[in-house]
């Protein structure tokens, strides 16, 4: 899933200059550049990507990316104003392989540079507020202690579980014959059964 991009500022014309190395601690000066002959002219877009900020230099007509400058803080080595003009800045360009180069950028209209300053300051102020709010929430949230205190017990109710065992009704093995109740005996004689109906009964001798 691609990160959501939010456009903070668009300027239709921006100038890019090759600049000499910084030889002093006072900062960059636009007067040292060839302001009348910029090395590239295009448009500028200030983009917020996944809580990060990028300054993108693009072709005016096609919108193709020429270069980009990730900005972690302002002012910083990523982007800083020159010391002798409000319309020019020094940006640290960075490509996808991590190589960097410092260039000068500037606007013909002072109002454009003012708009960029405001957009940059607003972005980092908002980011700072969100970071402070998150820090307060993290500090204020009570920690959850799941450890047992001394002498503390816990009861777990698993419910009743009944098991019914069905005994196999199998005869005893081992050669024993089950005992049957003995027939009723009088004196060892065979019991007399009544004759079937229609038969002739002969008296006993």
TrEMBL record:
Record-linked Pfam families: DUF1681 (PF07933)
Region named Disordered: 160-205
Keyword flag Ubl conjugation: no
Keyword Protein transport on entry: yes
Gene3D superfamilies on file: Pleckstrin-homology domain (PH domain)/Phosphotyrosine-binding domain (PTB) (2.30.29.30)
Residue ranges of every copy of the NECAP PHear domain listed in the record: 4-159
Biological processes per GO annotation: endocytosis; protein transport
A single GO cellular-component term on record: clathrin vesicle coat
Domain of life: Eukaryota
Keyword annotations: Endocytosis, Protein transport, Transport
InterPro entries in the record: NECAP_PHear, PH-like_dom_sf
Family, as annotated: Belongs to the NECAP family.
Name of the molecule in the record: NECAP PHear domain-containing protein
Organism whose genome encodes this protein: Steinernema hermaphroditum
């Amino acid at each position: 899933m691609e990160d959501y991009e939010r456009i903070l500022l668009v300027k239709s014309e921006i100038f890019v200059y090759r600049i000499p190395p910084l030889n002093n601690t006072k900062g960059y000066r636009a007067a040292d550049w060839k302001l009348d002959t910029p090395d590239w002219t295009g448009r500028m877009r200030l983009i917020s990507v996944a809580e990060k900020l990028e300054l993108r230099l693009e072709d005016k007509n096609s919108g193709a990316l020429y270069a980009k400058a990730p900005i972690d803080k302002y002012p910083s080595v990523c982007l800083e104003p020159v010391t002798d003009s409000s319309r020019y800045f020094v940006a640290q360009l960075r490509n996808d392989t991590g190589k960097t180069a410092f260039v000068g950028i500037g606007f013909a209209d002072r109002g454009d540079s003012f708009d960029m300053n405001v957009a940059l300051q607003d972005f980092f102020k908002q980011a700072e507020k969100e970071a402070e709010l998150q820090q307060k929430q993290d500090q204020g949230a009570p920690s959850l202690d799941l450890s047992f205190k001394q002498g503390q017990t816990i009861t777990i109710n698993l419910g009743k579980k009944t098991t019914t065992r069905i005994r196999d009704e199998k005869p005893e093995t081992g050669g024993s014959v089950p005992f049957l109740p003995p027939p009723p005996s009088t004196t060892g004689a065979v019991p007399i059964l009544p004759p079937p109906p229609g038969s002739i009964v002969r008296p006993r001798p």
